[in-house]
Amino acid sequence: MILLSLEWIWRGEAAEPFGGGARGKRRVDPTKKSQVHLAGASNVSTKASKASAGASNASKRASNALAGASNVSTGASNVSAKASNVSNGASNASAGASNASSQESSRPPEDSAVLSRA
Length: 118
Fold this sequence. Notes:
By secondary structure, the chain is mainly alpha-helical.
């Protein structure tokens, strides 16, 4: 009797530790219990999947933001290059004017007199 009671206690079927059997204790169908566990695992899996999708979306947004920043940087670089080209053009024009002035001042005096009469 004691061994049988210990076996019931071990299986969780005894309502009281000594005697009394399984009175007052509801039995749980093991198949239903496993279905509940499977449903819980499915919910956890669904939540993990949604979290993963959210992280993926956040990663895509960060990637797009970086690509946008790269485009802005490239645009700024292009503007800087164009400004440099304009500066070089102005420098070349200045050098050309300086050369013309230098050539004018290096002419002999008789050529200057002819030019001043015209």
